[in-house]
Amino acid sequence: MHIIIIGAGDVGRELARRLSAKQQEIVVVDRDPQKVKQLSQELDLPVITGNGANLEVLHKANISKARMLIAVTESDEINIIACMLAKTMGMKYTVARIRNPESAGDIDIDTRGLIQAQVGIDVIISPEKAVAQEIAKAIHWPEASEVEYYADGRVMLMAVYLAALAESEQQPLQDFALPAGCSVVGLMKTDGKFILPEADTMLSGGDKVYLAGRVAAVGKAGRMLHGSKTSIKRVIILGGGLIGYTLASILEGEKEHSYTVKIIEKDEKRVDELNRKLGKSIVLQGDGSDISYFNEEEIAEADVLVAATGDDRTNMVASVMGLKRGVAKVISEVTRIGYGPIYEAIGITDTINPHLITASRILKFSRGEDVLVLDLLKDEVAESMELVLPAGAEVLGKNITQAGFPKGLRVAAIVRDDEVIIPDDDITLTAGDHLIIFAVPKVCSRLGSYFVCE
After folding, report:
1. Of the N and C termini of the chain, which has fewer Cβ atoms inside 10 Å?
2. pLDDT higher for 145 or 292?
């Protein structure tokens, strides 16, 4: 597929890297000559200097041949105009990153239909809102390091770190009495090696275990493997930007949980604005990286500390302070893709990267209409996705064994007629099945040969 990416920032660069690795034909457009030079040196693909909202530039990018345009510049207006122009020229799919919801009206993210009729954008992605949703999931499941939902919330993928084993240093997977309705689909060993485990695979304390299945079963299994259950009541959010505000709104609207939410924001006008917008949360003015302010606010009494100030240095300092004061769960926003290892090196393991989340949500639409959800794992060692098995697919009518799936692919769950099935090798695949797929990157580009119509 010929895809035009407008914007060579972190998101555009990540998309170009991943899509070109999947054998897609990519052209990148950016008006910053330095970014163009840097990207052209990093990746072997065409990069054009120019404004992506300009017709002449779009023609240079061979827009008549393209089937998708992805606009991810720092300017909402350029992203919207580029998509509108592309639609007038017959573009099949358009995707725009919109940071300020007011730029495109009161439109929810990842929405189709009406948006296309209104402004020519098939999919709108708000990175900040997406990050807030991810953090909310992490607060809801505090034992987990990653959580993803599929099949309208009926299937969950969860990653947890295995607690130290009491009886021995290692134990085979088959010896863990996991609840019915879930299975282990992936394993990141403490030495960094990632595998799709078998029944006799040995597990050690500190391994990162990926579970998939029914929500209740996965939650129970996660708590069992993690070795503890964390009760979350008090949440402190550092930063009252769009991430902090959206997160507080989500937590205020939780029906199953009652959270006490406190936001610390350094801008006085923003504090007043948030106090008007939010009904239950407490909003205070202060500098989240100031040590004396931390003591004053008794951060140690918080169950969760969220650092979402928009600045990596401030987020790091605040997160380290929270960890030293014994906060049970510290979650930090990572504003630059390359900073992830730095956070991990100083002990901050629960991180959320807006660029990777945005790239993940956009990548889904490059897969085709049968892929409903696609997620990149935090360690980038595998992808998980939900797809609908179409009539005429190569594997239709075959069982798991007969399908001949490659070694790096696992069908984690099947949703059929509202029933969640943890498949064995003998289950037959039928048209309309919602398949939850767990696969390593080297086999992801070959999925079409199994799940796409002949």
Report:
1. C
2. 145
Torsion of CA 8, 11, 13, 14, to 10 degrees: -170
Spatial CB neighbours of 406, under 8 Å, sequence gap ≥ 6? 443, 446
State the number of CA atoms in the 13 A half-sphere of 263 facing the CB.
Answer: 32
| Residue 430, number of CB atoms within 10 A of its CB | 13
Tell me the residue range of the domain where 9 lies. Answer: 2-125
Edge-to-edge strands, sheet with 47-49: 47-49, 25-30, 2-6, 68-71, 93-97, 123-125
Question: Is residue 242 classed as helix, strand or coil in its secondary structure?
Answer: helix
Is 0.85 topped by the overall pTM? Answer: no
Integer CA distances (angstroms), 173 to 155, 183, 214, 230, 262, in order: 21, 10, 19, 24, 41
Q: What is the pLDDT of residues 79-90, one digit of tens each?
A: 999 999 999 999
- What DSSP line would sit under 282-336, residue for residue? EEEE--TT-HHHHHHTTGGG-SEEEE-SS-HHHHHHHHHHHHHTT-SEEEEE--S
Query: Euclidean distance between the first and final Cα of the chain, in Å?
Result: 17
Residue that terminates a domain, selected from 356, 379, 404? 356
Residue 243 to residue 227: CA distance in whole angstroms: 31
How distant, in Å, are the alpha carbons of 239, 319, 321, 332 from that of 346?
A: 21, 10, 11, 12
CATH number at residue 14: 3.40.50.720
Q: Are residues 114 and 88 in the same domain?
A: yes
Residue where one domain finishes, among candidates 197, 226, 255: 226
pLDDT band at 347 (very low <50, low <70, confident <90, very high): confident
